[in-house]
């Protein structure tokens, strides 16, 4: 996970335009690693999903600055709902 985070910062710091595909791959690796770490700690994937949903709901209710400015949290919440409906 730390390697992927470092790779993102290296891409951004290099001054070269990092491709969205390369950045998405690093971010995907971080998310997968978090899920696998949770599993190794005895936390089921569904519990991690629920924690994410709960945290998003709380941040939206508390009127987080990011939510106020961009609506990103509501957009992410809707994306996750839509994604889960597909499975």
Entry summary:
This protein has 87 residues and is an all-alpha fold. The protein has helices at 2-13, 20-40, 45-61, 65-70, 72-86. Helix 1 (2-13) packs antiparallel against helix 2.
Task: Describe this protein with a few key phrases.
5 helices, single chain, 87 residues, 2 domains
Mind explaining what this structure looks like?
This protein is an all-alpha fold and about 90 residues long. The chain folds into 2 domains: about 1-45; about 45-85, no CATH class. Helices cover about 80% and strands about 0% of the residues. The chain has 5 helices and no strands. The protein has helices spanning about 1-15, 20-40, 45-60, 65-70, 70-85. It is globular, with a radius of gyration of 15 Å.
